[in-house]
Design a protein that fits this description.
It contains 1 helix and 39 strands. The protein is mainly beta. The protein starts with 6 loop residues before the first helix and ends in a 21-residue tail after the last strand.
């Protein structure tokens, strides 16, 4: 038989390759190591994993010769894998892309097979068979393998998440799962394992929980747990007396950037099911809040959409559901709207008191919190850290510890947070003025009898170019005036 073909015939050979090899096996005796399953290699794997069936090739007289490799699975008429050098490999149905011969430099035998993405259906018997072309058969090539596939539990039947029932009625909660080994089913009520009573029983290998003549104390959350050596899963069903609406999908806290869209869920069920949903913020119906009314939508399923969100939308939102029976049920969530730091107000003129401490304010709003503020004076970057008499306060404002005439000028501030900045303030004219002076001061001490009156006089004169000063009185100890 010719072992090398012209490339022009290669594609034609591909079509008949599988049939050719099967024909070879019908004519050539092939034996397997251990003609019974007793000597087979047993392998255990978990669904989704990969395994290697290690199969050696022992050449006649230890001289390498051409051979065909075939892997079979018991119960299938067609091999799952056929390999011959320089020919396309054959993969059986369901094994495409999952079976491959190991590389020649691997520590496994030359006839070893790599099976990936293991499925539960892969469990069973596999045989490694080797044919030496134009040679007498050997009784050493070939091995039986048994693959045990373990799988964590998976539910095939579960009860509804909410079960509405009337007092005195009966109910069956059915919970079935598959997996390898076969999962065990156990039941809990409100985190306590269910104990059989005259009205509560567990049947059919634990898959059914039956409650008869339901009482109010039977109401609660029933959880079935399916478990085996590979893991466990759970499912909870809430048994309720038919009546008021129940929130099934409560809203959750969310953080959005200004300009994005936010949606809060508020799915509810009730018996009867005529559920109405009301959304509010700080006690006010969202549709009645002027800043929200054009941007908020309440959907049929009860969810609320705000599109787009603005900085002022941050707050606690309350979802309230009712079907007219009993008290409404509510759930709330917080909306955190982040935006770049921004200047909210720019005063045209700010005054600093000569030779005293003074502050030039930068009115800022930021979420997340302010990180830092840059300042300019007369269009040049101001470096407060290099000047001993200027400090940037935590709120971004400039503190002048002792004002002098050099501090007069035109200032701008630019705030930054983790989201960046929305820009600089307008120019602020900072003027240095002398502070007002007292023209009349109260005496250091006044001495009066109880029930007598006392007058304390105080007056002040404004500095040039400033307004008439305002005079305020207060007790030195902070107590309110009589």
């Amino acid at each position: 038989m010719g072992l090398r073909l012209d490339q022009r015939l290669f594609s034609k050979v591909t079509v008949v390759f599988a049939a050719l090899v099967l024909s070879l096996f019908n004519r050539v005796l092939v034996s397997t190591t251990g003609s019974t399953f007793n000597d087979a290699v047993h392998i255990t794997a978990i669904v989704g994993e990969s395994v290697v069936f290690n199969c050696q090739v022992e050449f006649p007289a230890e001289h390498p010769v051409p051979y065909v490799l075939q892997w079979e699975k018991k119960g299938l008429d067609i091999p799952i894998f056929i390999w011959y050098d320089n020919y396309p490999t054959h993969s059986g149905s369901g094994y495409e892309g999952r079976v491959a011969r190991v590389s020649q430099d691997s520590p496994y035998g030359l006839a070893s097979l790599n099976l990936t993405n293991i499925q539960e259906s892969d469990q069973g018997w596999y045989a490694c068979k080797v044919v030496f072309l134009n040679r007498s058969p050997t009784n050493k090539n070939g091995t039986w393998f048994h693959l045990d596939v373990h799988a964590p539990p998976k539910f095939v039947t579960t009860p509804g998440e909410v079960q509405y029932i009337n007092v005195g009625d009966s109910i069956i909660l059915n919970c079935q799962a598959v997996g390898t080994p076969t999962p065990e089913i156990v039941w809990f009520k409100d985190a306590t394992d269910v104990q059989p009573t005259t009205t509560v029983g567990i049947f059919n290998d634990g898959t059914e929980l039956r409650i008869s003549n339901i009482r109010t104390e039977d109401i609660g959350d029933y959880t079935c747990i399916a478990r085996n050596g590979e893991g466990q899963i759970s499912h909870t069903a809430r048994v309720l007396i038919a009546g008021g609406a129940v929130i099934m999908s409560p809203p959750t806290n969310q953080t959005k950037l200004e300009g994005e869209k936010v949606e809060f869920l508020c799915g509810a069920k009730a018996m009867p099911g005529n559920v109405t949903v009301r959304w509010s913020r700080d006690g006010a119906f969202v549709k009645s809040i002027s800043s929200l009314e054009t941007r908020v939508t309440i959907k049929k399923d009860g969810s609320m959409v705000i599109n787009p969100v603005s900085a002022d939308d941050s707050g606690q939102y309350l979802c309230e559901v009712s079907n007219g029976i009993g008290d409404p049920q509510s759930a709330s969530a917080y909306l955190n709207v982040e935006y770049p730091a921004k200047v909210t107000f720019t005063p045209t003129v700010q005054y600093l008191p000569f030779r005293l401490a003074g502050v030039v304010q930068c009115y800022i709003k930021a979420n997340p919190p302010l990180q830092y503020v840059t300042w300019t004076k007369d269009k040049r970057l101001l470096e407060p850290y290099q000047q001993k008499d200027i400090v940037i306060m935590n709120n971004g404002s400039l503190l002048f510890t002792r004002v002098n005439q050099n501090h007069q000028g035109r200032y701008t501030c630019t705030p930054y947070n983790a989201q960046g900045t929305q820009g600089s303030s307008g120019q602020m004219e900072v003027l240095v003025r002398k502070p007002p002076t007292f023209t009349v001061e109260p005496e250091n001490m006044y001495q009066r009898k109880i029930s007598e009156s006392v007058e304390m006089h105080c007056d002040a004169q404004e500095a040039e170019g400033t307004q008439k000063p305002k005079i305020q009185w207060q007790r030195r100890d902070g107590a309110p005036l009589p």
